[in-house]
Amino acid sequence: MHTHEQKNGPEIGKTYTCVLNDVPVYEATIQKAQGCWATVKVVKPLPGKFEQHYKSGQEFDIKVQFYDFVER
């Protein structure tokens, strides 16, 4: 993993609505954040075209720069 810090990146332990290409995809809690990567745990998928791709409790790594994080 890269170790440089993202400006305005998500904070560990906080829950955000994760927005990809202006589409809210899921609510997730940040488990780890290191450089340009973060590990998220899905709280709930949001209604829309990606809803079937995610399940509550699912954990995975995301590239921070591709998302906007809206604090709940």
Brief synopsis:
By secondary structure, the chain is an all-beta fold.
Q: Any overview of this molecule?
A:
The structure is a single chain. With 72 residues, the protein is mainly beta. It has one domain (15-71). Helix content is 0%, strand content 51%. It has strands at 15-20, 23-34, 37-45, 59-63, 67-71. It has a 5-stranded antiparallel sheet, with no helix packed on it. A hairpin with a 2-residue loop joins strand 1 and strand 2. The chain is globular.
Number of structurally distinct domains: 1
Which ranges are low-confidence, i.e. pLDDT below 50, for 5 or more consecutive residues? none
For the largest beta-sheet, the strand count, sense and barrel status come to: 5 strands, antiparallel
Record the strand order, biggest sheet. Answer: 4-3-2-1-5
N-to-C terminal Cα separation, in Å? Answer: 27 Å
Beta-strand level of the residues, as a percent range? over 45%
Give the helix proportion (percent range). under 10%
Indicate the structural class.
mainly beta
Radius of gyration: 11 Å
**Succession of helices and strands:** EEEEE
Summed over residues and divided by their number, the pLDDT gives a mean of: 92
Let me know the number of strands: 5
> Rough shape?
globular
Number of helices, counting only DSSP H or I runs of 4 residues or more:
0
